[in-house]
Fold:
Amino acid sequence: MSLQAPAAAAKPPSKHLRRYGPWALVTGASDGIGRAIAERLAMGGFNLVLVARRQEALDALAADLGRTGVETRVVANDLGPRGGAAQLDRATADLDVGLVIAAAGFGTSGDLLESRLETELDMVDLNCRAVVEISSVFGHRLAKRGRGGLVLFSSVLAFQGAAGAANYAATKAFVQTFAEGLGEELKPRGVDVLATAPGPTHTGFASRANMKMGFAASPEDVARATIAALGRSGTVRPGFVAKLLGWSLTPLPRRARAAIMGRAMASMRPKPASAA
Ligand SMILES: NC(=O)c1ccc[n+]([C@@H]2O[C@H](COP(=O)([O-])OP(=O)(O)OC[C@H]3O[C@@H](n4cnc5c(N)ncnc54)[C@H](OP(=O)(O)O)[C@@H]3O)[C@@H](O)[C@H]2O)c1
Structure:
């Protein structure tokens, strides 16, 4: 996305900025979908807290976003270990954060028995435990101010198991279920919770998960659909592939859905050299 100087600053604040501004906190902001969401929010006039592990990438993004006229704060933080959300809370205590986008996450692919257990457990820590921590710590802050938004990252894999991504799909099922319940708990306190369930999206995610994605959405498309759905629904499937999978798979029995998703995962795994 090309970031431009603030025509936005001259415009009256959008409905989103009035409800969720002035500060948004985005985890996973150094890359992929989180970065695209940070860019989109900056274009809408939000000040941004940018969170991920890579300080340099965050500093470069902050410099870019600064050109739109918004304020930024970089918090380089590993959310894997316990207590990461408490550190974020301290680092932003002086800011009026009204919107939290918890995009940091990663996936693995392949059978569990061929995977490093340590990596699988790290994934549970980041994709699930850290999401609960952030939701609790910032849920309190958002509820206290009586209005706010919280966006959690589910996936098309959240709605059934999938061979070749058994643990990743389970982490996303956790987030999906968590977001649905939490949304009901926080609604009376003025906080909108959105689960966003993308399909394959062209980011660094695939290479880290050792997958090859063919047809995939752009992170900008996912960012646009996610922000548009905030406050309007509890779950969004951003992008054409995610919607198509939803329409076509939802009527099927769960076991059939799992078999189809398992085959889709297998098709995205690189072929062993001997099979070429
Ligand atoms: N891409 C897809 O096909 C897809 C589909 C469905 C759902 N999703 C979900 O969408 C979310 C965003 O994924 P993406 O595709 O944008 O992935 P990505 O391009 O790999 O970006 C992941 C982001 O998370 C940050 N991160 C990773 N580990 C972290 C840690 N321990 N502490 C703090 N930050 C950490 C990374 O930054 P650093 O390396 O600098 O820490 C990066 O900014 C994830 O939750 C993913 O599960 C993705």
